[in-house]
């Protein structure tokens, strides 16, 4: 019997969608659908062990080997740049990382640009590549509030439909990158569990293609 | 004098075992000071992120650093090597910011370097030492070997900006096939070159198999076939990989050898054969090394170099040396 593969899933809607994909790919674990407070679910037949993890922690579990593979948004990979393999784009949880500002915003190039964001490394790297001097304001939520109240000039945040921005008189002024859920693997686990991991990646790739 | 070290932890036992291994193969112990002039790292800013170095001002006003790296010091202190190959090993602590915790850490490294007229025989010997080091640490180990010149040639013929080169190298390091395709598409890389780069992600594992597939798909590419770059042939680079794998032919260590182009390093400093070692149960690579002729050039050394380091702090949890008594004869 194959050794259990540890899979870190992000808690929440994205995680539920992603589990559906694993199930479709043949790596089901029916007990995961039971309504309880359990965090770890295993299926000996398919040799997978799933656990629910805070979405922003998935990459940490995988990088440190507590999970062999995991699913995490590209935004988190861009922000923390963990040393992992990024094996598949699951083409779900899609949105954009973008710079947004109040409608009609005119930049004062004489002063550092005040940027409010959860993604401080993404923001620093993006503006470093343009040579623009910035003042990063690290916020943890409701980032759209910052330019409305004059805390910042612009924000760097995830944009889905753009409705939240529009309703608050903000608009996207620059796109930074496309975001979606990615399947990642611990590099060392990949060396010793490559057959199992390759099997899952191939099966998930078929699910992704079928859903397109 | 015989000392029986029953109180040594596994990391310490591994350290003595590796030192004995290198010493028995004719490598000389090279000792260094904990401190180095900060200037060395400021002058080699691209090699070392000089922002993350612990510095202090010595009593004579000189800005000093707690060593974040061993290789630069060894290169600095070995100026005139001549027609020889200097074979050195070391056991040193370095001081770096952990990419995981973002705090400074003291890290122990044991490693070896060969400087001078380094040829493929020497490189094979160093790889054999790397494999033996891994075998000493664990029964389940993998040594990934790559030839960076293959990647460098393909990227060179893509004619893209430095930023795109870095993105391509990053994707290959992450085995990120979808990311690579996107970067190449947006940068206008030719279909032919994109396919070559994709191969560097999809081809890995059993060395005989990988080399056979490489020879079949790109081995015969000669002048002009790789767009815009005359005399661009991979035949020599693949032949080098073949020679190195052949060196392991009769060795019981052959089963741990793998070819994997996701071992990537800075193309400005490293070249040719580079490698990374993994042991089961440790989430990070425990050994890392390769040729660094370009670093030697940038420090005006008329010499070649190859070496590797073992990251001892990852070895603490391994049970290999549990209950083993260590006897040190000095």
Radius of gyration of chain A: 20 Å
- SSE order of chain A, as H and E? EHEEHEHEEEHEHEHEEHH
Beta-strand segment tally of chain B: 14
Which spans of chain B of ≥5 residues are poorly predicted at pLDDT below 50?
Answer: 222-230
Give your account of this protein's structure.
The complex is a heterodimer of chains A (212) and B (330). Chain A is α/β, with parallel strands linked by helices and 212 residues long. Chain A is built from eight helices and eleven strands. Chain A has a six-stranded mixed sheet with strand order 2-3-1-4-11-5. In chain A, strands 8-7-9-6-10 form a five-stranded mixed sheet. The longest helix of chain A has 18 residues, at 194-211. Chain A starts with a strand and ends with a helix. Chain B has eleven helices and 14 strands. In chain B, a hairpin with a 7-residue loop joins strand 11 (271-279) and strand 12 (287-291).
Short note summarizing the structure:
The complex is a heterodimer of chains A (about 210) and B (about 325). By secondary structure, chain A is of the alpha/beta class.
Question: How do the strands and helices of this protein lay out in sequence?
Answer:
The complex is a heterodimer of chains A (212) and B (330).
Chain A lengths: L4 E6 L2 H12 L15 E4 L4 E6 L4 H6 L5 E5 H7 L4 E5 L5 E8 L10 E5 L2 H11 L3 E5 L6 H4 L5 E6 L3 H5 L2 E10 L1 E5 L1 H6 L1 H18 L1
Parallel strand pairs in A: 1-3, 1-4, 7-8, 7-9
Antiparallel strand pairs in A: 2-3, 4-11, 5-11, 6-9, 6-10
Chain B lengths: L1 E3 L5 H15 L3 E2 L5 E3 L1 H4 L12 E3 L5 E4 L4 H7 L7 E13 L6 E13 L3 H18 L3 E7 H11 L3 H12 L3 H11 L3 H12 L1 E2 L1 H13 L15 H12 L10 E4 L10 E9 L7 E5 L1 H6 L5 E8 L15 E3 L1
Parallel strand pairs in B: 2-6, 8-10
Antiparallel strand pairs in B: 1-14, 3-5, 4-5, 6-7, 7-13, 8-11, 9-10, 11-12, 12-13
């Amino acid at each position: 019997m194959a050794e259990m593969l540890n899979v870190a899933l992000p808690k929440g809607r994205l995680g539920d969608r992603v589990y559906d994909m694993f199930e479709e790919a043949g790596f089901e674990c029916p007990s995961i659908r039971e309504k309880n407070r359990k965090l770890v679910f295993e299926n000996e037949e398919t040799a997978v062990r799933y656990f629910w993890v805070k979405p922003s922690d998935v990459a940490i579990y995988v990088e440190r080997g507590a999970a062999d593979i995991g699913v995490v948004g590209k935004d988190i990979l861009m922000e923390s740049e963990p040393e992992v393999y990024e094996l598949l784009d699951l083409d779900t949880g899609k949105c954009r990382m973008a710079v947004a500002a109040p409608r009609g915003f005119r930049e004062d190039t004489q002063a550092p640009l005040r940027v409010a964001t959860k993604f401080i490394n993404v923001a620093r790297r993006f503006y470093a590549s343009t040579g623009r001097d910035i003042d990063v304001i690290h916020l943890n939520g409701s980032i759209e509030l910052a330019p409305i109240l004059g805390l910042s000039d612009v924000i760097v945040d995830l944009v889905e439909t753009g409705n939240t921005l529009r309703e608050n008189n903000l608009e996207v002024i620059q796109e930074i990158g496309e975001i979606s859920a990615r399947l990642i693997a611990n590099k060392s686990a990949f060396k010793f569990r490559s057959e199992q991991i390759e099997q899952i990646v191939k099966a998930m790739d078929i699910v992704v293609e079928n859903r397109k | 004098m015989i000392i029986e070290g029953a109180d040594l932890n596994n990391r310490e036992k591994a350290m003595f075992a590796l030192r004995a291994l290198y010493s028995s193969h004719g490598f000389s112990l090279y000792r260094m000071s904990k401190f180095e002039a900060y200037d060395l790292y400021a002058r080699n800013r691209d090699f070392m992120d000089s922002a993350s170095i612990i510095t202090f001002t010595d009593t004579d006003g000189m800005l000093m650093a707690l060593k974040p790296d061993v290789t630069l010091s060894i290169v600095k202190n070995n100026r005139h090597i001549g027609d020889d190959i200097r074979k050195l090993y070391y056991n040193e602590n370095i001081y770096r910011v952990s990419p995981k915790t973002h705090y400074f850490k003291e890290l122990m490294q044991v490693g070896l370097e060969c400087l001078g007229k380094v040829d493929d025989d020497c490189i094979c010997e160093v790889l054999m030492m790397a494999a033996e080091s891994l075998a000493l640490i664990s029964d389940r180990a993998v040594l990934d070997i790559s030839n960076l010149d293959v990647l460098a040639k393909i990227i060179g013929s893509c004619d893209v900006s430095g930023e795109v080169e870095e993105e391509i190298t990053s994707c290959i390091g992450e085995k990120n096939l979808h990311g690579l395709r996107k970067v190449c598409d947006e940068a206008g890389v030719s279909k032919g070159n994109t396919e070559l780069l994709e191969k560097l992600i999809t081809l890995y594992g059993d060395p005989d198999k990988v080399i056979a597939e490489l020879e079949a798909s790109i081995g015969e590419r000669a002048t002009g076939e790789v767009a815009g770059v005359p005399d661009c042939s991979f035949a020599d680079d693949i032949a080098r990989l073949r020679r190195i794998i052949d060196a392991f032919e009769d060795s019981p260590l052959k089963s741990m050898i793998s070819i994997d182009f996701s071992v990537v390093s800075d193309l400005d400093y490293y070249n040719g054969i580079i490698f990374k070692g993994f042991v089961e149960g440790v989430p990070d690579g425990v050994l890392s090394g390769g040729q660094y002729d370009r670093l030697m050039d940038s420090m005006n050394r008329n010499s070649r170099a190859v070496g590797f380091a073992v990251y001892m702090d990852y070895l603490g949890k391994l049970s290999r040396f549990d209950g083993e008594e260590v006897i040190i004869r000095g």
